[in-house]
Amino acid sequence: MTAFQPTLKQLQYLTALHIHGHFGRAAEACFVTQSTLSAGLAELESLLGVRLVERNRRVVRFTPMGERVVAKAYGVLREADELVGLTVGGDKPLAGPLRLGVIPTIAPFLLPRVAPRIRADYPDLKLYLREEMSGPATESLSRGMLDAVLLALPWETPGLTVLPLAQDPFFLVFAPGDLPDPPPSVAPDSIDANQLLLLEDGHCLKDQALSACGRPELRSDPAHRGTSLVTLVEMVAGGLGQTLMPKLALDAGIIAHTNLIARPVTGAVTGNAARTLALVWRQGSPREAEFRLLGEAIVAGLAAP
């Protein structure tokens, strides 16, 4: 065993550089100066006696040994985080810091509804929120950068515990005149693929909506894809087509100041087309009981008038 071992701070610098691929952004994520981060990494390399990162003006590239070390560093930091989790808040539930990832198609519509309830029930909780798409969020969770993630199912969640919270039905949103005498609900097979506007690739809601409607084959023109649900509403209001919108966003008033119409998407076999809101965390986390309490608070917030 070496006389001196890497510090957790040095490993945090290393993983931040691996995630961001840029010294400046990594330093910003660690709340230190770039020179401090560079010096910490140089000390780590000197301590281990190996080169971990190749540096030049344009590219940050990890050496083969650097990739092996950073993979181990993620595990060490995750274990350290779980060790701290054993004592966070003492005997008081949901006290102290909690890093929660929330996907963009949930965050702006759900958090205003549930955050007041969470603050009222758990005033000692310091909730740090990060908005990320499902892939990066679950990767950050697995690496120990987040404690839990609020996302929508279906989504692959290997190594994670999943707590389903609520169903979030899909609605077809369209402009007046697009559907003459619109029915109370819309059958999936009546959706016009040539009129359908979807989110751009990378947003899980796109595939979830199509799958829930039983129309996974539907695609939209790449030139007519939105970067957010708000953008999709603007596109529909501009006469570019129709879109699928979750009830969560409609309840938040996303089309309240438009003349757009929303109808639930239902099928004779599948019933209401919907995604499932869920809270996920690493399997075996010592804070599982707290995460379940958080899930209960979210459900209560959703149910509040």
TrEMBL record:
Gene3D superfamilies according to UniProt: Periplasmic binding protein-like II, Winged helix-like DNA-binding domain superfamily/Winged helix DNA-binding domain
Molecular-function annotations in GO: DNA binding; DNA-binding transcription factor activity
Record InterPro entries: LysR_HTH_N, LysR_subst-bd, WH-like_DNA-bd_sf, WH_DNA-bd_sf
Domain HTH lysR-type per the UniProt entry, residue ranges: 6-63
Alphabetic keyword roster: DNA-binding, Transcription, Transcription regulation
Matches recorded under SUPFAM superfamilies: Periplasmic binding protein-like II, Winged helix' DNA-binding domain
Database matches in Pfam families: HTH_1 (PF00126), LysR_substrate (PF03466)
GO cellular component: protein-DNA complex
Homology family: Belongs to the LysR transcriptional regulatory family.
Protein name, UniProt field: LysR family transcriptional regulator
